[in-house]
Design a protein that fits this description.
This protein is of the alpha+beta class. It is built from four helices and five strands. The longest helix is centred in the middle third of the chain and has 19 residues, at 70-88.
Length: 128
């Protein structure tokens, strides 16, 4: 099997991954997976597509992650892994689609408006 690459995005985070046959090692920005995402729930989010398709431990995944926060990065990586699994085997698509891992969450931060404190919040009004 040759190297399969895929892209995942969420908020400001971008995950570029390279998947090849292996022992299940995940390397993120040249760090171990457990060191990059020390929190168990983020590790769970990232491994969801592999667990649903029962492919955990079959592929080595090399990841370049940029931008965003840790939650956005984890969800971007989940999308990239799901897309790579579909490229590897088309039979994974219905399972991943049903679980919602192939849908890009398009919500972005709304911009701050001039004359306001934040995007929607106004400055406090004073009558006197």
């Amino acid at each position: 099997m040759e190297v399969i690459n895929a892209l995942g995005r969420r908020k400001e985070a971008i995950a570029r991954i390279y998947v090849k046959q292996g022992k299940g090692v995940i390397t993120i920005n040249k760090k171990e997976f457990e060191n990059y995402f020390p929190e168990a729930r983020l590790q769970y989010v990232v491994k969801q597509p592999l667990q649903v398709t029962e492919k955990e431990g079959q592929y080595d995944i090399n990841v370049n992650l940029v931008g965003g926060g840790f939650k956005g990065q984890a969800e971007a990586l989940r999308l990239a892994i799901a897309r790579a699994l579909v490229k590897i085997d088309e039979e994974n698509k219905p399972i991943l689609r049903h679980s919602g891992f192939l849908t890009r969450d398009s919500r972005e931060v709304e911009r701050k408006k001039p004359g306001q404190k934040k995007a929607r919040k106004k400055f406090q009004f004073s009558k006197r």
